[in-house]
Amino acid sequence: MKLLNKDRINIAINDTMIQYLVTNKKNETVSKDHGEIPLEQGIVEDGKILDQQRLITIFKNIVKDKKWKNRNVAFCVPDSFVTMREESVPKQLNKDEVKKYIELELESSIRLPFKNPVIDFEVIKEEERTNKILLFAYPNERLQAYIEVFEQANLKLVVADLSFLSIYRTYYNMDLANRDEHLLMIQWSKTDLVLTVFHEQKPIFNRHIHLNNNDRDVMKGALDKHKLIHREMIDEKLITIERFMDFYQYSIMSGEAQVSHLLLVGDFPNQLLINEILSSRFNLPIKTITLPNDLPQEYAAVNGLTLRK
What we know:
By secondary structure, the protein is α/β, with parallel strands linked by helices. It is 33% helix and 32% strand.
């Protein structure tokens, strides 16, 4: 039936653009179309929709131009509001019961920085009386605002994912992942910096840094190693990365392990320069992702969405 063969639209949104990758339902790894649509200032800020009606209008126009009406959407939620942490739950609970347990424990043993979360989890270790889980939480009102945009534009959200999980899915699917490595994924974009350490092929520790307007102005230009202001901005972010790595080594891993590899992705200008500076600063192997279908590497997150059922 024709309805069963509809394309799926894979989307990521940040403060400055909508990024999309269209894949065929019959073969979800084959790209049919991809691109970026700029967003003017004041529509989305640090992942929060400020002008929902304007964003709806933009999506309606895209849907009309691309003939996307009634298509399914997989969406990488903005990274700004993601909370990830380990928790322990009673061992005898099934998946539905674990969700209910978490909801009951909110505001008591399990505290989140926002109310009314959308939650998901994965069991990462089974113990004698409890199971250790990796809990992911996202503010429901933030997600609902995007769902309303999609619905108003005649799109149906079927998958909501986190960018660092989606990128790692791409990395894993390319047989690059190693259980023993302590991989620091650096998502360095024009709007933010997302740092995530993966060990035993699961995320351990994560931090999001929103870039201010001055940083963005620097990132918009072609980075030149001889321009002092560019290097000052880069050096400032390198200090942030270094502190993150130290916290992981001494606080998360109690000094028993440290970051062993770096994975650099993002839509920043002059990736070769950043790569060179990271290599010189940290003296660690730096991995990169080469995407299928000649996709630029900044599409790693939306490509990862195509690998999720």
